[in-house]
Amino acid sequence: MNVLILGSGGREHAFAWKIAQSKQLENLYIAPGNAGTAHCGTNVNISATDFEAVKKLVWEKGIDMVLVGPEDPLVKGIHDYFLQDDVLKDIPVIGPKKDGAQLEGSKDFSKQFMMRHGVPTARYQSFTKDTCEEGKKFLETLEPPFVLKASGLAAGKGVLIIDNIKEAKAELENMLLNAKFGDASATVVIEEFLHGIELSVFVLTDGKSYKILPAAKDYKRIGEGDTGLNTGGMGAVSPVPFADEAFIKKVEEKVVKPTINGLVKDGIDYRGFIFIGLMNNKGEPSVIEYNCRMGDPETEVVIPRIESDLLDLLDGVATQTLDKKSFAVTSQTATTVVLVSGGYPEDYEKGKVVSGLEKVEGSQVFHAGTKQDGDKVVTSGGRVFAVTSFGNSIKEAVATSFSNAEKITYDKKYYRRDIGKDLMEWKGY
Ligand code: AMP
Ligand code: GLY
User: Fold this and answer.
1) What is the domain-level CATH number for residue 140?
2) Which of 173, 192, 211 is the last residue of a domain?
3) What is the pLDDT of residues 363-399, one digit of tens each?
4) Is the CB of 12 under 6 A from ligand 2?
5) Does residue 115 form part of some domain?
6) Which of 13, 95, 191, 255 could bridge across to 366 with cysteines, CB 3.0–4.6 Å?
């Protein structure tokens, strides 16, 4: 099979690394890819949202399957574009069509979906500029902290959690009346604050059956001890000790099944990954959000734990035979530590020369924001590498990730040295 992966981050490198191991693979292309994906297949320098260019590439290279990494092309309708094109319509796209991608693209849609299908989630209401005053009244019915969410895609920045009601009302106005997040905040979801511990559960579905992939915990804040600004994710751990078999079973019954059945009932033929952001409140799951793709850096721990052939599983998605595919996961723990550019998630410099990659031992380094510049690897993004390791415990795995994180050097490198620490110390609810 000839496969094209769209995207350029650590998630896409992890996909490429895994698919490159498949016996079913002939040629692998990654667009645009990074310096790491170039070792798994051929990078092609086109944007994942330039559908015309993707079409040309698919045609020229005889691509048999397209795996979409990020949400942007999905929300913009790349799957629909394929289905509506005579040349492309029979080439499977892994990732939902526009209707399914709304689970991530519109928080208002996803909250309505959850209510409609009985998926546990925080109480909420949605507001627009015409109902801003009602929104302020709704805030008064809630306990602090107040959760305000731009309904549309806002590059992970559209959620505000505010302690003070006056400030919450002012921010609501800012979002609705002053377009704080542009069009994304034309509708704002206000919801109850959920208490508990957060984790992510990933599901692969062919629209009929599903496989629950390993769960993971992501470390979103830039600073140690979960302080400072939100980032795309500074590290991840899988499995998570507070998501034992009994909890995952509960998630399957209360969240996964109603979600998959709900999609079918709504006439949404969903083929791809569903990322379910969950709060675990003393053993009870509640959905924070859906994403229509895998998480990053969660993919860098979830995919390495899958022992089965990923391409075979994706073929199951494309042909709706996922229920017939074998699916095995290692019980070993995987951790990943993300190395970022100094200054991230605010302004940072690019083009720093990387050295020490050849000294890494016992970890898999996934490139996130790198570029090949002649014979050198240089930084080209905020998140630069995800250093993934296995161990018999979080402590063992993360020690290997840290020791290799130290060996990779570039100017203004930063990483969190406390990934997994809270989970090592976790003693139950
Ligand atoms: P989202 O973009 O919906 O994932 O929200 C970003 C982050 O805000 C989540 O990962 C949570 O940590 C936090 N968050 C969102 N909604 C809630 C909520 N209702 N209660 C508590 N925390 C929340
Ligand atoms: N790591 C969180 C995300 O991919 O959205």
Assistant:
1) 3.30.1490.20
2) 192
3) 999 999 999 999 999 999 999 999 999 999 999 999 9
4) no
5) no
6) 13
